[in-house]
Amino acid sequence: MAIRAVRGFKDILPEETGLWRRIETLAQGVFNSFGLKEIRIPILEKTEVFSRGIGEHTDIVEKEMYTFSDRKGASLSLRPEATAGLLRAVNEHKLYAKSPVLKLFTMGPMFRHERPQKGRLRQFYQIDVELLGTKAPLSDVEVIWMAWDIIRQLGLMDLRLEINSLGCPKCRPRYRDDLRTYLKGVFQDLCPDCQRRCNTNPLRVFDCKEKSCKKIMEKAPLIRQYLCPECADHLSKVLDFLEVLDIPFVINPYLVRGLDYYVRTTFEIVSPDLGAQSTVAAGGRYDGLLKDLGGPDLPGVGMAIGVDRLLLLLKRDEEAPSIDLFVAALGPMARKKVIPWMGILRRNGVRVQMSYEDKGLKSQLKQANRLGAHYVIILGEDEIAREKVIVRNMSTHDQQEVSISSIILALETFI
Ligand code: ATP
Ligand code: MG
After folding, report:
1. Given 3.40.50.800, 3.40.50.1970, 3.90.480.20, 3.40.50.11810, which CATH number is that of 325-409?
2. Which is it for strands 249-251 and 263-270: parallel, antiparallel or unpaired?
3. Less packed terminus of the chain by CB within 10 Å, N or C?
């Protein structure tokens, strides 16, 4: 039996890569206009990077990571997200020393051992942004703005921005205590996972996908009423800027996100067309994270776009031809003559192909048609003798003779 790919790991086929490239190019353009620099980081890190960075008591670290020991017994993990590894790199290379505000992006595959379904893979792709070194509300807004711009420029209009504040170490503990008290009262009705979360990480109960837990949490106390004046002010400034930018938002008081490191702003961009896996992009502020990872106390805010989910929303492109010109050379002499021409054309960005086999004219024209070539140049023994080349327009079937000496110049006007 032929070997198949690992469950939840997907091939991106040639007919899809055009769209992938379009998304990546568009994102790079947007990041460039916001002054971001690219960083590329390893796919594999010491497990500690994620357990310390994302939090021991998160679904990602507890249940979803691909963790294994290497041959020397060190615990390594495939990255489940980009932020923790990126901050490890910022620390290691002291990138913050070069500029007070760091604006970085990275793209690539992430790995989580989840149940594969539509919009949920075990290897999936994220476009990730991190702004470090500022607490200013406008930096939260720029992060949202970039995600919004990329998604909008891809032509996706039917999206919703949901936003919330998770408070800070000053105001969250009081809220967490009250939430814990509430959860104690409903403990018996919670799912086993949430019963565990009551002690380890009560806010995460909001993130449970179980219907019964969701219902219970509708009556839970909400962080909104507990925000300290600084956090409330931060949130209202963020919302003001979003209004200025005309980015519509809804405040979702239940939005807590699955990662431990968030403070203040958290957000998701959600599509109604994606069913259960509806979040296309998500992010938030994580002021204590760099310090937790052993670095300086630099604030930060970031987001990740799930490229696989974005793709589910985009119409497939019509398959575009990957050729401009086909060269039909007939006979060994002609084949040798055209090869240098192909070199010149290719160096000038013209997409040229010829038949690998020495075939007759009819079969070569058929091949040119199948590839979608607009023009074919035809060169046989007879044309060589007359120092001529035939240029054929494949849609009008017009043919013209051009002298061999001026063929390259002539082709420039045809193509
Ligand atoms: P979910 O609640 O859907 O599990 P999450 O909160 O775990 O999402 P994040 O860690 O915030 O997701 O990742 C950011 C984005 O990456 C998500 O909004 C989504 O678009 C994408 N993403 C996350 N996990 C997967 C996955 N297993 N397969 C495909 N895309 C994913
Ligand atoms: Mg998840």
Report:
1. 3.40.50.800
2. unpaired
3. N
Judging by DSSP bridges, how do beta strands 75-78 and 263-270 pair with one another? unpaired
Atom of ligand 1 nearest to the CA of 277: 3
Lowest mean pLDDT among 7-16, 220-229, 255-264: 255-264
Strands 388-393 and 375-379: antiparallel
37 within 8 A of 103, measured Cβ to Cβ: yes
Residue 260: per-residue pLDDT: 67
Domain 14-171+227-313 class? alpha beta
Question: Which ligand has an atom closest to residue 129 CA?
Answer: 1
Residue whose pair of structure tokens reads 């051992």 in the numeric block:
113
Best mutation site among 277, 278, 313 for ligand 1 pocket (most ligand atoms within 8 Å of CB): 277
Secondary-structure percent of the chain, ordered helix, strand, coil, rounded to 5 = 45, 20, 35
**What spacing in Å lies between the alpha carbon of 306 and ligand 1's midpoint?**
6
**Has residue 256 got a pLDDT over 90?**
no
**Residue nearest to ligand 1 atom 15, measured at CA:** 306
Task: Work out the pLDDT band at 381, boundaries 50, 70, 90.
Answer: very high
**Percent of the chain predicted with pLDDT > 90:** 75
- What residue segments make up the domains of the chain, in order of their start? 14-171+227-313, 325-409
Ligand 1 atom closest to Cα of 280? 20
pLDDT in tens, 14-69: 989 999 999 999 999 999 999 999 999 999 999 999 999 888 878 888 899 999 99
What does the alpha-carbon distance between residue 83 and residue 105 come to, in Å, rounded to a whole number? 10
Strand (E) positions, 120-251? 123-132, 160-165, 249-251
Q: Which residue is associated with the tokens 């010829």?
A: 354
Q: Is the confidence at residue 380, as pLDDT, over 90?
A: yes
